[in-house]
């Protein structure tokens, strides 16, 4: 994936910040309803994205109302920002939404807001820094610069939302989860790694 496409993908991922924003403004119940509704919508639409026959049917239907050039442009953009394994399997948005729903339902408010914000913003900053400026790379393609950018951004976010001890532990957990891209998908595992680590740290230390 080109740097330009990667940046477009991360900009799209930043829409995930709506979850902590809604939690801050409206509280847990409204956020659960919002995330659950988004997940249901994504699950309904997902087959039309990954199954060629269904996608072609939708394109033919849309062709009656929308210019073909616009349909093809949208399809090319979606293809460009999709990972190879996502083109015919579950997309990152599904994994992100499932993890966000679990976290909002079962973790304390500050941990939920912090984990989702860190996983969303930290991942984007790591890519924005690491892709064009990463000079010291590991075997998996990750860079020292990108990982450091994730850690520092996560540390600042969690320092502001919780405190410095939680920030250090949570930032380290998120950085490691982002670096190793834990299965089934980093958009799922990153959020949960941060949330679970913060929760255990609080129970054990505080």
Count of individual domains? 1
Which stretches of 5+ consecutive residues score pLDDT under 50? none
The counted number of beta strands is 0
Distinct helical segment count: 10
N/C terminus separation: 43 Å
Mean pLDDT: 86
Query: Strand count, sense and closure of the main sheet?
Result: none
Shape: globular
In terms of structural class, how would the helical and strand content be classed? mainly alpha
Helix content: over 70%
The H/E string reads HHHHHHHHHH
If you compute it from the alpha carbons, what radius of gyration comes out, rounded to the nearest whole angstrom? Answer: 18 Å
**Fraction of residues in β-strands:** under 5%
Overall description:
The chain is mainly alpha-helical and 206 residues long. It has one domain (3-205). The chain contains ten helices and no strands. It has helices at residues 3-13, 18-26, 28-50, 52-62, 68-80, 92-106, 109-133, 144-161, 164-180, 186-205. Helix 6 runs antiparallel to helix 7 and helix 8 (144-161) runs antiparallel to helix 9. The longest helix has 25 residues, at 109-133. The chain starts with a helix and ends with a helix. The mean pLDDT is 86.
């Amino acid at each position: 994936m080109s740097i330009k496409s990667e940046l477009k993908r991360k900009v799209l991922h930043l829409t995930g910040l709506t979850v902590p924003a809604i939690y801050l403004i409206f509280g847990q119940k409204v956020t659960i309803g919002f995330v659950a509704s988004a997940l249901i919508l994504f699950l309904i639409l997902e087959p039309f994205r990954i199954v060629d026959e269904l996608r072609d049917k939708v394109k033919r239907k849309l062709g009656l109302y929308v210019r073909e050039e616009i349909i093809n442009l949208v399809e090319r953009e979606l293809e460009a920002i999709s990972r190879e394994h996502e083109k015919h399997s579950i997309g990152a948005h599904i994994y992100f939404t499932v993890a966000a729903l679990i976290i909002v339902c079962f973790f304390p408010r500050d941990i939920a807001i912090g984990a989702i914000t860190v996983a969303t913003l930290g991942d984007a900053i790591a890519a924005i820094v690491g892709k064009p400026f990463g000079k010291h790379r590991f075997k998996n393609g990750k860079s020292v610069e990108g990982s450091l950018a994730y850690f520092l951004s996560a540390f600042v976010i969690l320092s502001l939302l919780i405190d410095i001890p939680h920030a250090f532990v949570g930032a380290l957990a998120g950085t490691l989860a982002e670096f190793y891209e834990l299965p089934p998908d980093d958009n799922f595992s990153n959020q949960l790694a941060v949330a679970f680590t913060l929760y255990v740290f609080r129970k054990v230390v505080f």
